[in-house]
Amino acid sequence: MNHQPSENRSPWWPVVLVVGAFLLAAVPLIVTQHDRGRGRFDQVNYHEPAILRFAEQLPRPDVSDYLSATTPGYHLVLAVAARVISPSPVVLQLVGALFTVGLLGLLTRWLTPRAGAGPAAAMGLGLAASIYVFSSGVFLLPDNAAWLGVLGVLLIALRPRIDRITLFGGGAVLLALVLTRQSHLWAAGTLWAAGWLGAEFHPKPGVVGEIRSLLSDFPARLRRLLVVMLATLPAFAAVGWFVHLWGGLTVPIYHDYMQGVNPATPAFILAQIAVIGAFHAGFWFRPGWELVRRKPGLVLGVLAMGVLIAVLPATTYDPDAGRYSGLWNIAKKFPDIGGHTNVFLLVLAPAGAAILAAWLAGLDARSRWIMLAALAGF
Questions:
Q1: Would you kindly state where each structural domain of the chain is located, as residue ranges?
Q2: Euclidean distance between CA atoms 245 and 27, whole angstroms
Q3: C-beta of residue 195 within 8 angstroms of C-beta of residue 225
Q4: Rounded CA gap, 28 and 69, in Å?
Q5: With the C-alpha atoms ordered 54, 59, 62, 68, is the resulting torsion angle positive or negative?
Q6: Which pLDDT tens digit goes with each residue over 197-252?
Q7: Distance (Å, whole) CA 119 – CA 46
Q8: What three-state secondary structure class fits 165?
């Protein structure tokens, strides 16, 4: 991947293609009020009522309790649209779809000078075709608005410099993000990582050398980190205010429905990386092969870690424990070992760990550690 891209000379047709394809598929469903699927159910029963209630309450909406488990930023934006333009579901869904346009457009534009126009278009179309992304683009769901914020924070962190955009831009986007979905406060870690690493990070060779380089020039790194942490304080203050208002991490109506930490989540994420990574082998295969050739011990360690992540927690299909839907529905078709470890996850988790290592090996050192911070936080 090209790490010194020319933004000005890269073509715009991938953005037009990806955004146009999404709109061509989504707008007819919005205009005809397609009424099937989980997205429609969540819109009608939760998000649309919350939006319309806020619209009635403007300019002083009551955010102490409403029909969404997320912070109210997305709903308040659409509440303003309901008051200013129209409360019609068609209008609200069209306005809401703009968040998806922003998500797809920003990602595709960023990828174009770095991966090439064709690969950028292919990846953008793949994201647009995701059932999760497309459904959230058609119906009134806050997911894509939140992911747009995550992408914005991540791209700011990946910029090879620490400046006002990192501090004020990163802090502002992070604040907007947590006002849309409080659980994405983890994204602050990517900005912290950028602050610690500085504008440039050229570590010594080898894993040990790279880790030692991370701890070098400690006072300067600590000063940068503290400055960046100050820039993220408004986001933490906002989440803290809502926690105080709600008496918990969600509005009171959802206190009894929120599940705790799922120890099988790391194995599940690695399994997803294995599935998704299979379609992006062109990006990780070459650095992965170099990793196998030059550092076979490291590769074996990564595979062993993937096995442990799949074996230590229970990875059987269990709706009561939060292990259901998505890949879990596929996993339940495979046998379990000792009623504890699912064979499907046992195979995919190490594969995902290896693909992740190969992917990271293809990045420059600074980007690699920022992406690791993002993955650890998520």
A1: 1-141, 145-254, 265-377
A2: 38
A3: yes
A4: 29
A5: positive
A6: 999 898 888 888 889 999 999 999 999 999 999 999 999 999 999 999 999 999 99
A7: 37
A8: helix
